[in-house]
Amino acid sequence: MAIYQFKGFTPVIHPSSFVHPQASVTGNVIIGKDCYIGPSAAIRGDWGEIILEDGVNVQENCTIHMFPGKSIRLKTGAHVGHGAVIHGANLGENCLIGMNSVIMDDAEIGEESIVGAMAFVKAETVIPNRSLVVGNPAKVIKLVSDEMIAWKSAGTKLYQQLPSDCHKTLKEVEPLREIPENRPKQEDFYQTLQEMKKQ
Fold it and tell me: What PANTHER family would the database entry show (predicted)?
């Protein structure tokens, strides 16, 4: 893992969490239980403190940073989608930050809120709990339904299981040169939001 001490601060990472070897964690960072940090994610606590509470996931190519002197917190179950940037913002419990969205300094994302893909949340924006947020600049368009938060929570549970799966089964290998006859079948264990609506 690319874990770096900076100015006397060594990252603290719970052993149940998984930081991909191609991710980077620097300085004053505290990562709780069952967190997943994907490849090419950068969590840079060189200028301030970054706290990831239990069950947070920060997916591939995400950046978490801030201006000097700040302390930011991603609360329990926060879910940060591929390519998102969190710069000096706080994320509420069980919220979802969509792919390639940008959350700017001193923004507060309420618990169980969903920020749509490619949204831009301006500095100092306060998003109430259970809000669905989209656009550039981002705006609240409606409340998050029970159905939507159930779907989000189910997806986050998969990411909370992923650290254990990675610790047990992820290993660097040489590729196969042909498809073996006994290749395993991929598990089908997740319902899309559309499938959930049909029930």
Answer: DYNACTIN SUBUNIT P25 (PTHR13061), GAMMA CARBONIC ANHYDRASE-LIKE 1, MITOCHONDRIAL-RELATED (PTHR13061:SF29)
